[in-house]
Fold these 2 entries.
Entry 1:
Amino acid sequence: MAPFSLHPWLLHQTRLSNSAVRLSQTVTVVRNLQGLPFPMRATAAQQETVTQQLREALEGLEDFKDEWVECPWNVASHRERILLKNLAGLEQSCDETVVWYHAKNFIHIVINDGEHIRFHLTSANGSLKNTWAALDTLEERLGEKLAYAFDPKSGFATSNPQVAGMGLDAQILLHLPAICFDRQLPKLIKAASEMNLKLEPLCVSDDKAVGHLFLLFNTANSGTDEKSLLAHIEDVAEKIIAEERRARKVMITEHADFTRDSLGRSLGLLGNCGELTFEEARHLLSIVVMAVDEGILPTPKRALLLRLWCSLGHARLCEFCQESIPSSDEDRVRAAVVKATMDRVLKQPTAAKRKVSRAV
């Protein structure tokens, strides 16, 4: 088995889509085992039984030794635990929680975190259907050796009513700065709710969405099948994306002065700040990302900008800098990292370099 390393997790999380609005999609498939209580009611011995059964099933896969990495919660450092919570979506972790990830396709398998087994995959490109298909294939292969708790009438047993039946949760990460500016967000949230979906901020501070990032996800599974549910979420997402594109066009054409002023202020603060909070950095970089995506601020280093955008929290900032950062110095270090990275993002190649690039 490969050694415990979080490096591939970091690479995965910073690879966001080339789309200007839709940044990624995540699918989670939940399974529990017959004859064992849910993790919150199970003993340590029963939780270890779940871990052992899954380990034996994984060991039967051809690529197990070379490509699967085990990350036990009870031996992870404090910083690693924060990263595992963020990257694997841990919610009810305990000493018996274990995370496996596939080093090539970045599928995560989480054990004893609210449910016995959670298959989790975030992809930058493609569709919810394709993302789900990758998890479904693995889940079925392991299901040949595991006894899932299943009832023909009610479906797969879960501790979360939201994913009862299919044991499926799907979400799409959207960047919606123009919709926020256009004050259309409450209308879209209400419309999504009426279609059994939820649109909510990825991060909230003082009752405000930080960085204009939103998740669209299902709130119920009953009365439908996997493909229909995923198609429904995709359809609603496309409508929201179309609305964001319309709002961006209006913002750029009819409110050009405001747009230029917002971008100028953002670049000025990002390039000259001595300290920068997480909320400030997320908000300012959101405006810069939109400007890059709309061609207002051309740069060949969008990927680096997105990596910076995703590395503003304390644990991710430490990983970005490859060193531990005291909490008292966090805002100062964040400002220094942002300034240095923005200089690289905005630096234009010299005429000689451009000529060489064209020749190549």
Entry 2:
Amino acid sequence: MLSHPASALLCLFIGVQTSLTAASTPASAPALPTMADLLAQSRPADWRALDPERTLYMDLPSGRVVIELTPWFATGHVANVKALARERYFDGLAIIRAQENYVAQWGDPNAEMPGKARKIQRAARTLPAEFDRAWDKRIPFTRLPDGDVYAPEVGFIEGFPAARDPRSRRMWLTHTYGMVGAGRDNSPDSGGGAELYAVIGQAPRQLDRNVTLFGRVVQGMELLTTLPRGTAPMGFYEKPQQHVPIRSLRVAADVPPADRTNLEVLRTDTPLFAALVESRRNRREPWFQRAAGRIDLSNVPLPVRARKEPAPVR
């Protein structure tokens, strides 16, 4: 049973959906709450603060990119990337690739040059691949109502876009806008987190279960999407002076509280989020003349806002 105040909104959506078609027009449909309306009606319990121990700050000359790490997937890579950050591995390295409609990639520009490559002190250089994981019914999965080309079921797990297969009993993260993964060579086990990338274009879902995903950008995507595109094959920068320097990459818990970026994200396991999904499936703002009646995983917005009070120190 739904006990949240937004349950009434959700019930309204469900009732109205049974009588709407994709050809409905605003004039023939009742006024429904928009995403802005729903967010304005949200309560503190609809939001969760970022955990500083599961958040990375990548500081660039242009600003800060905030990356949330998932507790449910790729635990080995999450731990290793944090270890790399804590030994200051990424400081002074660079964004070396920006491929149009695909990814931005960062790491050591000299990684293939044994005499010049940055040494890893304590973290692992490579790890076993973590492309997916066993199905676990304890993991809170909010399933989307519409179909998907790449997976039997898709939805969200604590804000992370994910998929699962009831037949194989496997679950995995998906390559949608803003997702962060660990680059690798041809061998599945050749990555470890020393080379990272973020999706900056249309969701390349063919990469699902082929690369290890472990996080998502929750703020600062504009700093990556507006990078000059590389002109070498695969969008790599041809000249060292084109590289975008990384000033630092830190675990948020290691940053003084006064210097943290305190954010909170909308929970994806609430009736309010379900109502938000419905509002995006059937847009009723005055500009829209047709309601799509569908939404895919890549087009569900994940709201983030500044937190009024600093997150608790753990």
